[in-house]
Design a protein that fits this description.
By secondary structure, this protein is α/β, with parallel strands linked by helices. Helices cover about 40% and strands about 20% of the residues. It has 9 helices and 9 strands. A 4-stranded parallel β-sheet has the order 6-7-8-9. A 3-stranded parallel β-sheet has the order 3-4-5. Strands 1-2 form a two-stranded antiparallel sheet. The longest helix is centred in the last third of the chain and has 18 residues. It is globular, with a radius of gyration of 19 Å. It starts with a strand and ends in a 7-residue tail after the last helix.
């Protein structure tokens, strides 16, 4: 078990304490169980925001012990923290990051998400400065959640730009995020997956998508309730 204690100052001279006991055995078990449900798809554990308050390094290592194939974070410094804790598994940063973090992304072997030409060029320049080649990036498609990602009609340009920045960069993955995954009966889930498949078909027809590129779309709710969302 891993425990943490958080103190909160209420007023001068008054302090209230609270603590959470995190059962890492339960984390391992949950990952093993979810992985068995989604098989043969791989499972990557999201451990952003300090592992949703449970302790990112501890939860990440437990998830990997439970069979997670990779990890996801929201910010570069979260990925660096995991590397410092000894994590060697792939770590995906789920959105484009400030240009000032590009060197750290490459240096710490964090997989960047891109959805703009500018972000592609910034990362390629960082890889060139650091003498790195074959740096994998994942391209995010906004199929309807309207949070982050390239519009479906812009994805070809982004993927094409990654190809133009070879040998520094390569496309390691293409993904989207389901807006209504926790409502399995909502037809918008199918609409988003159809848009994803349309983009993938277009990329393949243009010779821009290698067979080994990972495709992913299912968050936890999608993985549990929507077999069509379980891709690579």
């Amino acid at each position: 078990r891993a425990g943490s204690i958080v103190g909160s100052m209420m007023s001068a001279g008054e302090q209230r304490w609270a603590w959470a006991d995190v059962d890492l055995g339960a984390v391992r078990h949950n990952v093993e169980h979810l992985r068995s449900i989604v098989a043969p798809s791989a499972l990557w554990a999201v451990v952003k925001a300090n592992g949703y308050g449970h302790g990112a390094p501890e939860v990440a290592l437990a998830a990997l012990e439970g069979g997670a194939d990779g990890l996801c974070v929201a910010l570069v410094h979260e990925g660096i923290e995991l590397r410092a804790a000894g994590v060697t598994a792939p770590i995906l940063v789920l959105s484009e990051q400030p240009s000032t973090t590009a060197d750290d992304l490459v240096r710490h072997r964090l997989t960047a998400t891109v959805y703009s030409i500018v972000a592609v060029d910034v990362l390629a320049d960082a890889a060139a400065r650091l003498g790195e080649t074959g740096v994998a990036v994942h391209v995010k498609i906004d199929t309807g959640m309207q949070r982050v990602g390239a519009r479906p009609d812009a994805v070809v340009d982004v993927v094409g730009r990654v190809g133009e920045r070879d040998p520094q960069l390569r496309v390691g993955g293409v993904f989207t995020h389901l807006a209504m995954a926790d409502e399995p009966a909502d037809e918008f889930n199918s609409t988003q997956l159809q848009r994803l498949d349309g983009v993938l078909d277009d990329l393949r027809s243009r010779g821009l998508l290698r067979a080994d590129v990972l495709v992913h779309a299912a968050n936890s709710a999608g993985a549990l309730t929507n077999p069509a969302a379980r891709r690579d």
